[in-house]
Amino acid sequence: MQIPYTRSIVTPPSQVVSNGSFNVGCYNHPFREVNFLEAARPYKLPLPQRLKGMQLREWQAFQMGNAQYFIMVAIYNAKKLSLAQFIFYNKETKEKWRYERKVPTWSLQVPNSLYETTAHYKGKQFLLHASHNIDAQLLNLRVQIEQFGALPNVKGFFSGTHDVERYEPMVVCMPFSEKRAMYSHKCLMPLKGELSIGEQHIVFDPTDSFLIIDDHKGYYPFPTIYDWVTGAGHQADGSLIGFNLTDNQVISQEQYNENGLWLDGKLHPLPPIKVLRPQGVKNDWTIKDKYGMVDLVFTPVIHTAVDVNLLLFRSKYQGPYGYFNGYLMDQNGVKVAIKDMFGMGEDFYLRV
Questions:
Q1: Closest Cα partner for 247 from 255, 262, 258, 260?
Q2: Which domains does the chain show, CATH number per domain?
Q3: Which listed residue, 96, 152, 186, 335, has the most CB atoms within 10 A of its CB?
Q4: Is the peptide bond prior to 223 cis by the omega test (within 30 degrees of 0)?
């Protein structure tokens, strides 16, 4: 069967920026260095490094889980708005515990590489610490949170198999304009770990648990608007399956997007998509493309919302968790059924 859509995915150069210009493209391997501050004049006026850094949004986020539990961890540094976040959701009991601190930008660290680096936040009785070493196929994440209001204490250690030869990452550098771009490294991999949360002690076994990393930087438009959905789990034979679908302000999305399906470690590119919410964010979302390769319905079951309006600062965010049903098409032209796959979506607007 002829594939209705494909795009070029190639080996990246060592750096995101060369000679002041972004190396835009879709890639099948990590960059050695994500050197955004070397981009020449991402804004109209020339800015010193310090001010250029204050315009750069960067984060590492991790979605983890198994058949019963879903965990979201974020070390998020938008400079004017920075936060450390740990969210735990029990699919069976529908309990959701959210640990979040808005923190000073200097208290967070997001590195410029995934080779022997760390991302972390350490505050009073609140620790998130991610260690990376792709050469050794390692991703370790440590969490320790105590005395966070009425919520139970948390202590966890998680390890992902960040083997980019076995589990193909989705690595992109995509243009918002001639001078401004975003970078993302996303990878779905097996997870092992242990989590103590209150009286519960949970073991995550790599045969039935997953982790998705999103290492991310960008000089984003003003305002920033995007739709995003993702889900992951295991197929009947035990192999990993997951997807990432985004509709954002990137130009030339037929050529540059971060849409893909992971099947047993292989990445299958997908086309640009649109997200429709005919009855609002709390009801079904429809996610489709124009080639017939993406046809999903997302049914939210629990919600996270932020709505802040402070003159120059405006944030409207909806981030529900829920279930996906429908299909995605792989690069062999085979429709892959998505049935009751758990995941999350975001309806995002930020003016800052």
A1: 258
A2: 7-219 (2.40.370), 221-352 (2.40.370.10)
A3: 186
A4: yes
Task: Check: CB of residue 159 under 8 Å from CB of residue 139.
Answer: yes
| Helix, strand, coil percentages, rounded to 5, for the chain | 5, 55, 40
DSSP state of 68: S
